[in-house]
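User: Structure please.
Assistant: Input sequence and predicted structure:
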Amino acid sequence: MRVLLVDDEEELVSALAERLRIRGIDADWACICYDAIRRVESKRYDIAVLDVKMPKMSGIELKRRLEEKRPGMKYIFMTGHGSEEDFRAGSAEAGTAYYLVKPVKIEDLIEKINEILND
């Protein structure tokens, strides 16, 4: 299983990737949306975990661009804002079950990853 984490908070996203790797999950991360697009162009991922609000490009827009590169890739959204508007936007793209509010517990993220891959 390969996971791409994308969040503009470098400390958070690098720590999540490290914690996934410790648990045997192949995880890469990016802080800039364009870096995430380049990674998806060169490597196949099963799931992308995207922050909803990022500078220059939202997680929703990034998902749409990544879908063009890799149809069939699955998505989980996460946000630190937790507004109703963000929830609706993320849920419309990935479903209510695949929307997490930061801080994200690693066990919850792994559970969602397993759920979405078995869905």
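The mean pLDDT is 90.
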